[in-house]
Amino acid sequence: MQARAFFMPTPDGQRLCIFHPPQGTVLRGRVLYIHPLAEEMNKARRMAALQARALAAAGFAVLQIDLLGCGDSSGDFGDARWDAWVTDVVRACAWLGQQAPAPLWLWGLRAGCLLAQEAALQLDTQCHFLLWQPPATGRLLLQQFLRLHTASAMRTGSASHATQALRAQLQQGAAVEVAGYMLSANVAQGLEQAVLEAPSPAVRTQRIEWFEVSPATPARLGTLSDAARLPWSHPALRLVRHALRGPAFWQSSAVEEVPDLLEATTRALCAPGV
């Protein structure tokens, strides 16, 4: 059974999806991949595809979706809305549930982790989280994104002023262009308000597999993991944090692979507990 691409119809256009059917005789679960922001999505495509194939080979039904205004889905990036992205995730979960009635994993990378958290609040089923490089806040991601616009201004010492000007435009409801992407005020506001928090009891989460990749030797978890350790620990939740050595494939200039991350992720989801 080969992966197949299709367009999922929605009230505001179509979403490109790639479905990877589960291989073998045992259905282990269903996994929805939620991509990161803007160019990070493109940089991570190789790793996302490799991981999706590996999970499908291990018995998981995996769905990749290009959210509104991203990739080959309807609209331009400037048409995107944070709430529409959350709705896309919820809609994709419903479709995947019809194909494979099995435990649900929301797999997010960077901004995708924040979208997974918000979408989970709207689901009527238990879900588990696979988090790749989760950010502490969306505000941090927004700041990093805006810096792409101000990189050239750093040579003249006006980077700080340029960033403030962009934020002022966004706060006034205007879109801004950053590295070839038209960022809407709605998406910027969604990022500003998004904070990575322990799942609400209403989400009925049991497992979180948290992965961070670092070039450091030995690999170690960031300060976010240390700060989040206690608030995320309670008897009903199994949180496992993994630190792996490797390049920041979601932002490197060349297409990078992290084989250790692929293997560790597959092994973690196949472990007993769901």
Summarize the structure.
The protein is an alpha/beta fold and 274 residues long. The protein is built from nine helices and ten strands.
CATH architecture group name of the largest domain: 3-Layer(aba) Sandwich
- Write down the CATH class of the largest domain: Alpha Beta
Number of self-contained structural domains: 2
**Structural class per helix/strand content?**
alpha/beta
The whole-angstrom Rg is 18 Å
In CATH, the homologous superfamily of the largest domain goes by the name Alpha/Beta hydrolase fold, catalytic domain
Mean pLDDT: 90
Indicate the percent of residues in helices: 25-40%
CATH topology of the largest domain: Rossmann fold
Oligomeric organization of the protein chains: single chain
Strand content: 15-25%
Please mark out the parts with pLDDT under 50 across 5 or more consecutive residues, or reply none.
Answer: none
Biggest sheet details: 8 strands, mixed
SSE sequence, one letter per element: EEEHHEHEHEHHEEHEHEH
- Spatially, the strands of the biggest sheet line up as 1-2-4-3-5-6-9-10
The backbone outline, from C-alpha atoms, is globular
Number of DSSP strand runs: 10
**How far apart, in Å, are the first and last alpha carbons?**
25 Å
In DSSP terms, counting alpha (H) and pi (I) runs of 4 or more, how many helices?
9
